[in-house]
Amino acid sequence: QVYLVESGGGVVQPGRSLRLSCAASGFVFSSYGMHWVRQAPGKGLEWVAVIPFDGSDKYYADSVKGRFTISRDNYQNTLYLQMNSLRAEDTAVYYCARVSMPYGLDVWGQGTTVTVSS
Amino acid sequence: DIQMTQSPASLSASVGDRVTITCRASQDISNYLAWFQQKPGKAPKSLIYDASSLQTGVPSKFSGSGSGTDFTLTINILQPEDFATYYCQQYKSYPFTFGPGTKVDIK
């Protein structure tokens, strides 16, 4: 069975940092690109970032560029999202998702909640 | 960036109905379009990729069509478990963008 399990969410003050993790199992993690997608309370889905299988070219949404960094450890089968200079508008459930072309974002984690509040 | 719109924003339907949701891209995305279903408190579930291909395990009551800028998702014989929010997403170019969603609820 293919699983993605996010962790690291919590309540953090504006301006502080947080690192999310996404543990993968049941597939060859090092062969797949990975994405982060978030969803603010009561809102729709917002794409955040992508990292290819080898960690080379990364892309970010404009809303997080320069503040968030996506990375991966293919030995630990884990995806990360380092979030710095957090803002209230970063409050959301953060999902990691596997990309498998041509199938798109075919496997999603259950999400981890980040709340930015003083 | 490619903008995605969906219509309607919400709709009310009865069990057994057929519903159609429309998604439009601000520029040509060929067939690089996916549809997702999301139920409250749950992660999105991929239904369709490449505009019209069904993900493994997704029932054939779901179908997608379109290319270029205009796409549709059709759900035949609506069942109680189909009441959810549906999102389209383009993956022609970064940033990948989602439509605002269409909430399907019970009439």
Question: Would you write up a description of this structure?
Answer:
With 118 residues, chain A is mainly beta. Helices cover 0% and strands 52% of the residues of chain A. The mean pLDDT of chain A is 97. With 107 residues, chain B is mainly beta. Chain B has no helices and eleven strands. In chain B, strands 2, 4, 5, 6, 9, 10 and 11 form a seven-stranded mixed β-sheet that branches. A four-stranded antiparallel β-sheet of chain B has the order 1-3-8-7, with no helix packed on it. Chain B starts with a strand and ends with a strand. In chain B, 36% of the residues are buried. The mean pLDDT of chain B is 96.
Sheet-strand content of chain A, in percent, reads: over 45%
Gyration radius of chain A (Cα, Å) is 13 Å
Question: How big a fraction of the residues of chain B is strand?
Answer: over 45%
Could you state the order of secondary-structure elements of chain B as H and E?
A: EEEEEEEEEEE
Largest sheet of chain A: 7 strands, mixed
Distance between the termini of chain B: 36 Å
Major sheet summary line of chain B: 7 strands, mixed
The total of helices of chain A stands at 0
Shape of chain A: globular
